[in-house]
Amino acid sequence: MNGKTHVVGVWMAFGALVGSLIGAVIGILSDDWSWIAYGIPIGVAVGFGIGAAKALGVHAKNDKNATDNKN
Fold first, then answer.
1. Which member of 4, 31, 32, 42 lies 3.0 to 4.6 Å from 55 by CB, making a disulfide possible if both were Cys?
2. pTM value?
3. How many domains does the chain divide into?
4. 11 lies in some domain
C-alpha cells in the first residue's frame, strides 16, 4: 500500500467512525435511528475528501520540491 492510498484509507475510516457516531447520537436524541444510515455514508464521503486532499497536497509539495531541485 503506497502512502497516498494509506492516507485516503485512514481518513475514510476516520470519517466513517465520526459519521456513525454523530448519526448514533442524533438518532438516540431524536428517537430516529435512520440517522445512522445517513451518517455513515456522509462520514465516508467527507473522510474520502479530506484524505484525497491531504494526499494530493503531499504529492503537490513533493512535486514542487522536485522541480525546485532541478534548477
1. 4
2. 0.56
3. 1
4. yes
